[in-house]
Specification:
The protein is built from no helices and eleven strands. It has about 120 residues and is mainly beta. The protein is elongated and about 50 Å long. The N and C termini lie far apart (about 40 Å).
């Protein structure tokens, strides 16, 4: 019932900037953590950035260039990407840990992904 939908993926030049958005929809009681992962062709899905009430962390490869933020009222999470490099190319997935009911356990949810391509 809960869905995460990403938007904002595009083709950009090296050194350019791009913003990604993710909207969580459905019955949501609480979002405990949310963030972004990415996957290059033929490689595993890797953490880009994640945030919770007591932690915000970035992959070493994006520190100083990417910024994660949340809008709790809109159940949204954003990723601002600056100084993009060809190695940033991949499918970016939204991730969240969500409880949908006060008596239910929190679950992990994934979006379907949005393509980011940084040309060289």
């Amino acid at each position: 019932q809960v869905q995460l939908v990403e938007s904002g993926g595009d083709l950009v030049q090296p050194g350019g900037s791009l913003g990604l958005s993710c909207l969580a929809s459905g019955k949501i009681f609480s979002i405990y953590a949310t963030g972004w992962y990415r996957q290059a062709p033929g490689k595993e899905r890797d953490l880009v950035a994640i945030t919770s009430s007591d932690n915000t962390a970035y992959s070493d490869s994006v520190k100083g260039r990417f910024t994660i933020s949340r809008d709790n009222a809109k159940n949204s999470v954003y990723l601002q990407m600056n100084d993009l490099k060809p190695e940033d190319t991949g499918v970016y997935y939204c991730y969240a840990v969500i409880r949908t009911h006060p008596t239910d356990s929190a679950r992990h949810y994934w979006g379907r992904g949005t393509q980011v391509t940084v040309s060289s």
